[in-house]
Write a structure and sequence with these properties.
Layout lengths: L16 H14 L12 H8 L3 H13 L3 E2 L7 E2 L4 H15 L3 H25 L2 H15 L5 H17 L4 H16 L3 H5 L2 H17 L2 H17 L2
Antiparallel strand pairs: 1-2
Protein name: GntR family transcriptional regulator
Keywords: DNA-binding, Transcription, Transcription regulation
Organism: Photobacterium indicum
Length: about 230
């Protein structure tokens, strides 16, 4: 009896050539064989190195680009980059937009935004400086001035909330906020939300006052009240 008869062997897993090339180049980037800013070998050189055709190399480079590991520009050589928050969030956009077409998932996103912004506004009230307060005041004034213009109100509404995130001095927080709100706006009914502009302005004023006073508890209450109203009309 063969020795193999007593072993449980797993069949070899078939791997697409492009996936193999993607994995190998990714390893070379992550171990700094190819450093940020380096030019990758040409398509022909990669074809020779991996023993694959041009379609497999091009597909691999596209996958690496989606991961934020390389930058591909027409007419230029492919360069190594590093993924950033925006790269990660952009990769989720298609999934998020698909989920937001369903009422249950839309409410879950609204709840996620609420949890996120409540945490942000508490910290903003705790660490804000006089300069931060001045910037937030300007953003608030811009928002109040656009209450009768739907498109401009949305722009200045987002800018007001974005300015709050910027108080934390963490670009990742701002990027996540912008992505969340952009996904949600696509799913909203303009006629419904246009009616809420005046009350949103009133809420923004109270949120501003809480941050100006440096009161995290009050800032949380005002932001929660504001976003509860948004969720109830989503």
């Amino acid at each position: 009896m063969s020795t193999l008869d007593n072993l449980t062997l797993k069949p070899l897993k078939k791997v697409k050539l492009s996936d193999f090339v993607t994995d190998e180049i990714e390893k070379l980037i992550l171990d700094n064989t190819f450093k940020e800013g380096d030019v990758l070998p040409s398509e022909r050189e990669l074809m020779t190195a991996f023993g694959v055709g041009r379609p497999s190399v091009r597909e691999a480079l596209q996958k690496l680009s989606q991961k934020g590991l390389v930058e591909i520009n027409s007419g230029e050589k492919t360069r190594v980059t590093r993924p950033c928050t925006q790269t990660i969030v952009s990769g989720l956009s298609g999934i998020a937009i698909g989920l937001l077409s369903q009422d249950k998932e839309k409410m879950q996103f609204e709840h996620l935004r609420q949890l996120f912004e409540i945490s942000v506004v508490r910290e903003a009230a705790r660490v804000r400086t006089e300069e931060d307060v001045e910037k937030l005041s300007a953003a608030l004034e811009n928002n109040l001035a656009q209450v009768d213009n739907y498109d401009r109100f949305i722009e200045t509404d987002i800018a007001f909330h974005r300015t709050i995130t910027e108080i934390l001095g963490n670009p990742m927080v701002t990027t996540i906020y912008e992505s969340l709100v952009q996904w949600l706006i696509r799913s909203r009914n303009p006629e419904t939300f246009a009616k809420l502009h005046q009350i949103s302005c009133e809420h923004h004023v109270e949120i501003f006052k809480a941050i100006q006073q440096g009161d995290p508890d009050l800032a949380e209450r005002e932001m929660r009240h504001h976003l509860d109203n948004v969720m109830n009309n989503a």
